Amino acid sequence: MHSNHPKVWSFRKQLNAIIFIALFFIMACGTFGGWRLLQFSSSQVTIQQSSQALHQNLYTNFDKTRLIGEIHTQLRLYMQSGKADNLDLIHKYSEDLRRKLSTEEQKTLGHFLETIDTLEIRMKSLEENTKKIAQTEKALIDLTGQLINISSREEGATIRPLVVGSCLQHHQLYVTAIVANQIDALTRIQIDAANIFTDLDAKLTALGKTLNAEQQMFIERLKTANYELDETVHTITSIRITTLETQHRIEQFLETLNAGVTEDSLTKNTEASALMDTSLQLARSNLLFMSASLIASAFMFAIIAFFLNQRMIKPLIGFVELLRRMTQLLAGLRGQQVAEDENLIQLSEMAISRHDELGEAAQAVKMLITRLRELSLFRQTIEADESTEEIYARLAQIFEYKLGLERFVILEQSDENSAAMAPVYCNPPELAPELPEFAIAEHCRAKRTGLMITSLETPFICKQYPFSETMDHICIPMLVGGHVIGVVQFLFSLDLPEEVQHIKNKAVEEARYYIAEALPILQAKHLAQKLKDMATKDPLTGLYNRRYLDSVIEQFIEGTIRRKSKIGVLMCDIDHFKRVNDLFGHETGDFVLIQLAQICLSCARKSDLVIRFGGEEFLLLLPDCDESCAATLAERIRATIESHKVQTPSRTLQQTISIGVAEFSHATSKTIWEIIKLADIALYQAKENGRNQVLICQDDSVNKTLENIP
Fold first, then answer.
1. Are residues 358 and 441 in the same domain?
2. Model confidence over 226-253: pLDDT tens digits?
3. Under a CB-based contact definition with an 8 Å cutoff, are residues 228 and 166 in contact?
4. DSSP helix/strand/coil, 591
């Protein structure tokens, strides 16, 4: 759907302009970024080389530091245990470290290894003296035992604690010397050991003066062993002092190596840091420029977003909101007609004011909603119609006066059980005599296929169409629930100009919407009529039943009383009907009932009610009819049935009928049911009088034959 005004500044043009501005800005930013990138790449190689050197330096120095740490750890373990395995690991790590050191650092490592060799000699000496102290303690204890054996109890009690106490004190000093790591502590141990030795020696000398010559000999030997023990403790302490001094010297060598490694690392790191600082300054300046670019980009895109919001998004949101309100109103809020009209006015204003796609969409939506309103109003109107004939008449008015379709025919299959399809509306009426007779509805191509059939695309497509030489046609099936209940046929002259034919085709498309709206209502009307017929009509004869009589009798009587009129009542009964059923069967009896019921219906007026009152009884109520009129109609029915030959599949029968006549007046005091009872009494009197006759009930007991009724 195209609007009537040109698109001055369409969405596409606006978007193209925005895209052009965005591309220009992107190119400008790309050029600026390339220029800054060239500046940064000039120092990139230097930065990479510095980074690689820094990485290599860190890796190498880390390896040196790790090896120095391993050597230091093994040194401490060796000092504690004296195991050769720790010493072997020191030499192994030292060899690995040598390959990574500079010449000056290798000299320091050489001094370190020489000191390690010295330390090894002293640790071995410490180990030998440790064994010797155990031997000396044992010899001292053995001599003490021998001396006690040749001494008295009192002498033994003096000698044992004296020697054993001195021995234990020396041993404690030895253990302390082994674990001590301070030279001052070791020096105090030497002094304490000398004091213990001097004290014991003095006490042994004093004790020897009181002993005999043999005991004095053992005393001298004890003094010698005590001297050796003191000397061994002194030696171990001296070794421990020199060992600690050696350890300190070794650790100084390690610290020197570590300090050299650290200094080398710091020097190279400083060089790399200087280069990094230069690159960071360059990156900082680039970051400032890029930040400024981003701010400019954000500002530009904010302007674009504002433009899009004002020119596109905001109107589009308003349009969508308008559609939402219109959808709610179309969904069933028909009471708000004023609000709906206001929304249509807004759509019209938008369609006129906007010269872009949104204006076109508003115009299309306005037309769509207008159509939906019209369709909805049409549906509401036909829902209130009482019959399908009224609905077809309204469709015809839409086709002719609203859509300009002058020639059309509406055909309907009146009953699902019927094979025929007949026209229910023809415009103009002069076409009716020339229309084909669809005694079998399936001969209609549109009815059979359920598809739209048109000769505009395929000439002579329908063999049943009688106007192929003068008019084209479009046949639209009325499809409901998968079943075609009829066909709408539109006819056009063959010599229509192309633009006129295009307008007619658009009108047919519009007509299809109205047909689709009408189909559910038509189907509902058909179903309602079918249900009503099932409830009020006898399925065998097609006459109204007693239930229908009960539902309309009051209204029927009120109309008669209001008009101050009369009702003729005929009670009819087929003569000897039981004999027909007994002799020929109920199927033959059904044929008799059907044909005689049709005779009663054909003889009656359109305003008369013909009711199957019982098995073979028929009741006729004749409004605005007195006794003479009712008697005349009764005699016509009797005579027609008497002369009628009832055709059955197996034989031909001739039946008669007896009829009782009564009259209901607006002035009577009797009810209609009492009058029907009087007619029934007259019927039975006619039966008793020989059947095949009409009797009139008078004063509840007088009967009169109708031999002289003209």
1. no
2. 787 788 777 877 777 777 777 777 777 7
3. no
4. helix
